[in-house]
Amino acid sequence: MANRCYSVVFEILVGIDYFNYFLAGPDLWEWIKYVLIYIAYVVIVPFLMMLFITFFVRTLAERKRMRNEKPFEC
């Protein structure tokens, strides 16, 4: 009963009944694939977001600095 309940909840969240698949024990390649996906979401995606935000903030700061500088007068 409990296994079926967990399976239904997992199926609702994921969309496919992976719960029984994991109970059967996936092979090593499946675990490696899911670990790589986890690393991508936890490490690579935040790193890329940080780079994008840094570039965006630096671009805005550069535009503001260029706007505030007075042109060179002779």
What does this structure look like?
The chain is mainly α and 74 residues long. The chain has one domain (2-68). The protein is 81% helix and 0% strand. It has 3 helices and no strands. It has helices at residues 2-14, 19-24, 28-68. The radius of gyration is 25 Å and the shape is rod-shaped. The protein starts with a helix and ends in a 6-residue tail after the last helix. The model has no long low-confidence stretch (mean pLDDT 73).
Low-confidence stretches: none
Helix content: over 70%
* Gyration radius, rounded: 25 Å
The percentage of residues in β strands lies in under 5%
Can you count the beta strands?
0
Shape: rod-shaped
Number of helices: 3
Mean pLDDT: 73
The major β-sheet equals: none
**How many individual domains?**
1
Structural category is mainly alpha
First-residue to last-residue Cα separation: 86 Å
String of helices and strands: HHH
Topology:
Elements: H1 2-14, H2 19-24, H3 28-68
